[in-house]
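Subgroup meeting minutes
Present: P.N., E.W., G.H.
Scribe: E.W.

1. P.N. recapped why we're keeping a running log of single-chain structure predictions: easier to compare across weeks, and new members can see raw inputs and outputs side by side.
2. G.H. added today's entry (255 aa).
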Amino acid sequence: MLNDSLLKLGDVFLGWIVRLPGDLPLAALAALSALALIGARKIAGNGDLLRRLGNDRRRLKELLRCAKASGDRDALRRHRRVLGELVLRTACAEFRPALVALPLLAIFALWGFERLPCHPAAPGETVEVKLYYPLPAVGQLVHIVPIEGIQSENGWIRKFALDGATSACAVASWRLAAERPGRYSIVLVSGDNRHVHPWGVGTAAGGRCRIAHTADKKAISTITLWPRRLLGWIPGIPAIGLDDWAMGYLILAVP
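Output recorded in log:
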């Protein structure tokens, strides 16, 4: 698949990022994104035009402040109209560079979405893996394919039970611990359905804490990893699909 190929390409060039401590992975990805845009501007943009437009915008903002201070409504209206025209011209001038940088930025976004949402678990640290299914699955068997180097405290074969938290779905859970660092693929099997949840341990990328395996979100797996948040506490906006790590990345990347 294209996504898998792009992820492997991203791992080759960006894999070093996940080994950085604290907020540095987010800062490094934001810096690389900024460099991609700067490079695209030099290759495909009109640097002189962008520079002049930037100078004009700064000057107009000064004139706007003066017009507000003096109460000159006509000048205020005129400066706002000209500023709107400059913003539009700037957007048009930035379009080509953005188009050139788009493939690289898309790889950064895909790689970050898959590799940066959570901090990796430590070797020997126990994490809880859960698989959520619709209510009719209660009582059915489900298992994780045994993985070399990983121990399951409560066995590989489980039964779906009623989710005590919501009573709205079936859930099965496992307690896993990896003996050594690495990137693992947890394969959850229910009947003819196989779901894969990547898991990073040690210096490997932590991966995602929650994965919806079907479009209708009726099969969801979770793993208890620590979410990656800027400064350790700035949250995302789940209502619009903005994860914690993505919020931190945008804060650092967008001036």
